[in-house]
UniProtKB/TrEMBL annotation:
PROSITE patterns: PEPTIDASE_U32. Pfam families: DUF3656, Peptidase_U32. PANTHER family: 23S RRNA 5-HYDROXYCYTIDINE C2501 SYNTHASE, PEPTIDASE U32 FAMILY. The lineage of its organism: Bacteria, Bacillati, Bacillota, Clostridia, Eubacteriales. Residues 376-492 form the Peptidase U32 collagenase domain. This is Peptidase U32. It comes from Clostridium scatologenes. InterPro entries: Pept_U32_collagenase, Peptidase_U32, RNA/ubiquinone_mod_enzymes.
Length: 777
């Protein structure tokens, strides 16, 4: 079985120490800028260099995340930062923005690039496209099953990385605009406000029925019981999420997965049940899930009742306020009672105050922040955390054994020789002198040669090739040993890279007329209103589950086809449908990299706004792949104009429509109203009503499903830039998208009449200009 990489998070230097000391093969971390975890401690340049040196001495790889979307003005700084990372020996960059891929391949062509999970790679064709365009590794979407991972990793021979433990986003990474549109904090820029962890109500418009809870809050992933199956999928790297977590968490999770992986690779024994229990004590939200590795299990992967750390059940409070412990308990352990928490200050057992009590004991606690009938949960274990703290507090606790050969001969320099990783190292020190009094014996010499101090190396065995009784100052012995270890470290830290090689780019010419207005619809009545208003470039979405647009209508009306941004196991069926319709359509609109790769030579492709095109250089990546780009809805006016002005590819702006905030494999309708779970399907609940999510502020978010049971959540109000069309035209943008989701015939008709006049007529209070004025930071 091939060696597999255990990849650990490092949000701080202590977390880095914890990861390496507990057995990580690689770590990933962010710098002060351009990291998708902007609120982690992250690393300044000085600490980044220290981190690289520390990891490389232990032969642990280090990957740096520059995985945010970048504004045009940031690209120069980002490239300079990439050059710095390259110069200090960082092993690879994890990136999202295709502009950075273009720039790095021009300036630093041998710098290894990993495609961030923010690039939403979830099918084989998409993975192949990025591999063919310079990415060494693909961090796959968390939504894939083991069979899909196996197909991409083994059948297509693509190096992949998958998340095996930690927080799970409810939306496909890179496709979430919820935080951005609600509060201006963009997940694509590392500033997600986690609206998925807030309470919502799902409402059926038709019946009036509703369900409440933390309906978008998934449980964390834990796959420690499934490591053998995961390794056999052929993936290269098992990734632990958690750059925002404390170092004790990193130490414990890495050590547990190290044991589990080694038990498979080396045939050693490990108590998986005990490791799983330890992981539950560290952090869990109503238990763990397996993500989508073994299928979509609906409500069973969600934490509807509590979005934070649930802990493990400690016991039920009795009438006399005593508790029979279901777990061991110590003073300073953390306790949760409902949504409140406290730290244990006293444990009273049999009338006596004790420091700790064992499972099964009947005890009383202080403070008494609970009442009879409450169920208490232990959320932190001070003994576990203390044991983990001791690991990262000693960053050189893990030692690499060296075998040493020594020549200690009178009137000759002391000679130390070792072989490490197939390379021979030899150091000569001072002359061995005749002893005026007591000579230095072998045991004393061995004792000093074995002192390794603050280094990762330890002299385990000393063999004397030649030994004569003599004398040498202890300081000289220590200096010889230090020089030998420094020689090894210097070799490990050597950075030898070629820089400055430039590559050329080819440009794809747009051969067909560019439509000024594209009207996207999913129902016949919407399509009818578009044609009646004399808009000829209509984009039809026939993959919406309730769409009543038939293939024959497409063939008769010469429309564009909107293809889902997410396509997994149904990829062959979708491709087959597109192939049948190709002779009758003008082209396709999509942000699915797999579809782009499959049809780039067959038809006109317009890149949808979920490709997250943020700057003009990003468009260069798609020169030979796309014909038009619908630019990101997160840009403000000046950023849009600059992108369009500096792009060599035609750009389109969405001027009307409800933006898709989220797309998820998990269906909130099927899992609540349909009760979908491990043992039950959804009973097609989404077809029996029309639904919206209501947040704490009373905003209504339209919820639709597609024909492959994915859930799409749209912004509560449409973006409306119709009044700004003249302004955009004067600035040089001449291509526009108008999207209709759940609008009626009359609503579509009214909007399109306003589009023709380039002026909104009526009340604007039910609309937003989105980021047109403000943008995102």
């Amino acid at each position: 079985m091939n060696k597999i990489e255990l990849l650990a998070p490092a949000g701080s230097m202590d977390s880095l120490y914890a990861a390496v000391q507990c057995g990580a093969d690689a770590v990933y971390l962010g710098g002060n800028k351009f990291s998708a975890r902007a609120y982690a401690s992250n690393f300044d340049n000085e600490n980044m260099k220290k981190a690289v040196e520390y990891c490389h001495i232990y032969e642990v790889k280090i990957y740096v995340t520059i995985n945010t979307l970048m504004k045009e003005r940031e690209l120069k700084e980002a490239l300079e930062y990439a050059k710095f990372l390259y110069s200090i020996g960082v092993d690879a960059l994890i990136i999202q923005d295709t502009a950075l891929a273009v720039l790095i391949k021009e300036v630093l062509p041998d710098f290894e690039l990993h495609a961030s999970t923010q690039m939403t790679v979830h099918n084989g064709e998409g993975a192949s496209l990025l591999k063919d365009n310079g990415f060494k590794r693909i961090v796959l979407s968390r939504e894939l099953s083991l069979n899909e991972i196996k197909y991409i990793s083994q059948d297509l021979n693509i190096e992949t990385e998958i998340f095996v433990h930690g927080a799970l986003c409810v939306c496909y990474s890179g496709q979430c605009l919820m935080s951005s549109l609600i509060g201006g904090r963009s997940g694509n820029r590392g500033r997600c406000a986690q609206p998925c962890r807030l309470p919502y109500t799902i409402v059926d418009n038709i019946s009036g029925k509703e369900k409440k809870g933390y309906l978008l809050s998934p449980k964390d992933i834990c796959t420690i019981e499934n490591i053998k199956d995961i390794i056999e999928s052929g993936t290269t790297s098992l990734k632990i999420e958690g750059r925002m977590k404390r170092p004790e968490y990193v130490a414990a999770v890495v050590s547990s997965y190290r044991k589990a992986i080694d038990s498979i690779l080396k045939g050693s024994d490990v108590d998986i049940e005990n490791e799983n229990k330890k992981l539950l004590q560290l952090f869990n939200r109503e238990g763990f899930s397996k993500a989508y590795f073994f299928g979509n299990v609906g409500k069973d992967m969600m934490a509807y009742n509590f979005p934070k750390n649930t802990g493990i059940m400690l016991g039920k409070v009795q009438k006399d306020l005593s508790i029979v412990l279901q777990e061991d308990l110590s003073i300073r352990d953390g306790i949760r009672n409902g949504e409140k928490g406290f730290t244990v200050s006293k444990i009273i057992q049999d009338g006596n105050e004790v420091f700790e009590a064992a499972k099964g004991s009947k005890i009383k606690l202080k403070p008494v922040d609970f009442k009879s009938g409450n169920i208490l949960y232990k959320t932190s274990d001070v003994k576990l955390l203390s044991s983990m703290e001791s690991i990262y507090k000693n960053p050189f606790g893990k030692k690499v054994d060296l075998d040493l050969k020594v020549k200690f001969k009178l009137n000759e320099p002391i000679n130390l020789i070792t072989t490490y990783r197939g390379r021979k190292y030899s150091v000569e020190g001072e002359l061995v002198q005749e002893a005026l009094k007591k000579p230095l014996d072998k045991d004393k010499l061995k004792e000093h040669l074995k002192k390794s101090g603050s280094t990762p190396f330890r002299v385990a065995n000393v063999q004397f090739d030649d030994f004569q009784e003599g004398f040498m100052p202890i300081s000289s012995i220590n200096e010889s040993r230090r020089k030998l270890i420094e020689a090894i470290e210097n070799e490990l830290l050597k950075v030898n890279r070629n820089k400055g090689i430039k590559i050329s780019k080819k440009e794809k010419a747009f051969l067909k007329p560019i439509p000024k207005y594209m009207i996207c619809v999913n129902m016949v009545e919407q399509m009818k209103a578009a044609f009646e208003n004399e808009f000829c470039d209509v984009v039809v979405d026939v993959f919406y589950k309730k769409s009543d647009i038939k293939d024959q209508m497409i063939k008769e009306n010469n429309v564009w086809l909107k293809v889902p941004n997410i396509i997994k196991e149904e990829f062959p069926a979708v491709c087959s449908k597109i192939e049948k319709l190709l002779p009758y359509i003008k082209g396709i609109v999509t942000a699915n990299l797999g579809i782009v790769n499959k049809f780039k030579e067959k038809t006109v492709i317009i890149g949808d706004y979920k490709l997250n095109i943020f700057n003009p250089i990003s468009t260069q990546f798609y020169n030979n792949l796309l014909d038009v780009i619908c630019i990101s809805v997160e840009l403000n006016k000046s950023e849009m104009l600059s992108l369009a002005r500096n792009s060599k590819m035609p750009c389109q702006v969405m001027v009307y429509g409800k933006v898709e905030n989220m797309v998820s494999e998990y269906c909130v309708v099927g899992s609540t109203f349909g009760n979908k779970g491990v043992v039950q399907n959804c009973n097609r609940a989404c077809e029996k009503g029309t639904f919206y999510l209501k947040d704490r502020m009373g905003a209504h978010f339209t919820v639709n499903t597609d024909k492959y049971c994915r859930c799409h959540i749209y912004n509560s109000v449409p973006t409306n830039l119709i009044d700004n069309i003249d302004e955009l035209e004067k600035a040089g943008i001449n291509n526009y998208r108008i999207d209709f989701i759940d609008e009626t015939y009359d609503e579509v008709n009214n909007v399109l009449k306003c589009v023709k006049q380039k002026e909104w007529i009526g009340d604007f209070s039910k609309f937003t200009r989105g980021h047109y004025k403000r943008g995102v930071e």
